[in-house]
Structures are given as C-alpha cells and as structure tokens.
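Sequence in, structure out.
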Amino acid sequence: MANPDDKGQAELVADTDGEVKVRLDGSYIAQALKACGGMVEFKLTNGYSPTLFSANGYQLVVMPMLTTESSEQAKKDREAKAEQGEAEPTTEVKTEPTTTEPVAEKKTKRNRKKEKMAVTT
C-alpha cells in the first residue's frame, strides 16, 4: 500500500467562510472536475465529512481520506456535542394515561404453491 504522504500537495485559492484542512485522493478530484466540467462549487464542513462538488445542477460527493488531524477533530466535535447534550435542561412532559384495545396480529400467508417451469437447452 502506498504512503499517502508520498503524494503531491496542492493549495487552492478560493472564497471561504473559514479554514479547514482536508485530504482527498487526487484522482477523485480529477474525476469530479472532469465530470462537472471544470469550474465547480466545492462545499465542505470539516476535514472528515463528505465533500460536495456541484456545477450546473450536477452534484458529486467525495469522501475525504482519514488523517490524524481529521480524526482528532472528529473526536473533539463528538465530545463537544455530547457535552452540549448534557448541558441542555430536559423538560418533563406530562401525559394522561390512556387505555388501548389489544389488536390481534395478522398472520401473513405464504404461497407455497410450486409452479412448473419450462427449461430449454
């Protein structure tokens, strides 16, 4: 198996709303650009989630390669989400007890009838 660090590296100039490092297989990027026609809109949220290439109504999803940085970020994000879930107060919902009638289960019938088939050789 080839070492991914032996591959080339490229930096792209783009209009962004933040900064993130992502590792993508170069052949997948080339295929995405070719399929979309060259200029694309490239959307990503972090270094470990799928990326979206889109152009002229065509969309293509590419999964990034897992790196140490991206797996650490994923772990931090999961921990932050867990802490946020614990910090939110739970609201108690009171419901009135209701009675329900038992419902008989329907048994599905299986068709065990064998059909003759013609076989030609």
